Amino acid sequence: xxxxxxxxxxxxxxxxxxxxxxxxxLELFIVVSPLITYPYLIKTLGSELYGLVITAQVIASYxxxxxxxxxxxxxxxxxxxxxxxxxxxxEIISSAFVIRPFLWxxxxxxxxxxxxxxxxxxxxxxxxxxxxxxxxxxxxFPQFYFQGIEEMxxxxxxxxxxxxxxxxxxxxxVKDQADYYFVPLFKSIGSFIGGTISLYIxxxxxxxxxxIPKKYILILYMKEALPIFSTEIITSIKDxxxxxxLGSFVGMNEVVIYDLGAKxxxxxxxxxxxxxxxxxxxxxxxxxxxxxxxxxxxxxxxxVIVILTFNLFLPFIVxxxxxxxxxxMPLRIFSLAPxxxxxxxxIATNSIIAFGFNKYILYSIIITTITxxxxxxxxxxxNALNTVLAFIIITVVSYLAEFIYRLIIAKKIIxxxxx
Length: 419
Fold this sequence. Notes:
Blueprint: H1 2-12, H2 14-45, H3 47-68, H4 71-81, H5 86-117, H6 119-122, H7 125-131, H8 135-140, H9 143-148, H10 152-173, H11 182-205, H12 215-249, H13 252-286, H14 289-321, H15 329-334, H16 337-353, H17 359-381, H18 388-418
Helix pairs in contact: 2-3, 2-10, 2-13, 3-5, 3-12, 3-13, 4-5, 4-12, 4-13, 5-12, 7-11, 10-11, 12-13, 12-17, 12-18, 13-14, 13-16, 14-16, 16-18, 17-18
């Protein structure tokens, strides 16, 4: 009897296991792919020029935030709820493809104004223009649709294929410093091709019809997404502004070290990110409190083990990516960030958003940003913003503040929902 019970449970959760497999391969590849080219680009372009390339990508990523407008977060839930209603799915997707192009144009106009006004950016105008092409992925690729219908294999195959081509082209064509503009060019082309293929699958293979949505529908989705968008904009101050300040106060070489730490952070949080994305439709649909709570606890324990292991091998890891010898202390401190960030993000997605309390995400980011700006001010007036370590400490403290607040709110939400 117990065997039949377990067999039934496995069958009921087979979609989760299948999607977990696909998204695991995808997320691991997305993390590993830039690290594959990292040592080569550092050696070929040099730290100073590669730091500029990174800065251009960071500034262009603000366009990604505007184009998404929080829709990538809220729409998977809508697709999941209405997955058997094709007319409703058509309305959701059509709304996204009416909103996104408008926001893309607006963001490009603002982006172009910024890079032409700042002399150091205008000097490398082609680099910055090509870097904006990373927004094609978010303009064209309806990831929310595949996530909502729990068909992650489409996202996996498209992204792995495109990123593989980018890696190959980088090694073939980037031969010296004069080829630095190829880096954003190949990424932009890959984003455009991947987005185009995904649109073909959605509208021709899945027979989703594009319709002009009513005005109130567009307003409804944008209103629901506004707290998430506001959150992401405010978050970007904490997560991205350090790159710009580092380049200004310290130098592009330090940008490379900070970026390497950020990439390590992204790599370490991926296991939890994968789990979060796969479980979100189920938790949101079933309002499964126990699944959310125990998975968050397990994620925390897992991250402690991962971070300890990472620090054990850190000297060998850094030696592989950077030819020069650096002080490992900044990166060791940075390695605390994944512990707070991963669990905080899981709680945000699978407790706060899944149970419909989106406003608390905005509140948490406001608190985090206030912490970031306050720390920044303290270090500035203490004349301590002259090392990469200072920016890393500020970042880690900000993530800690975010984690504590979201943990408190999640406990309150779970208590309210359980009543």
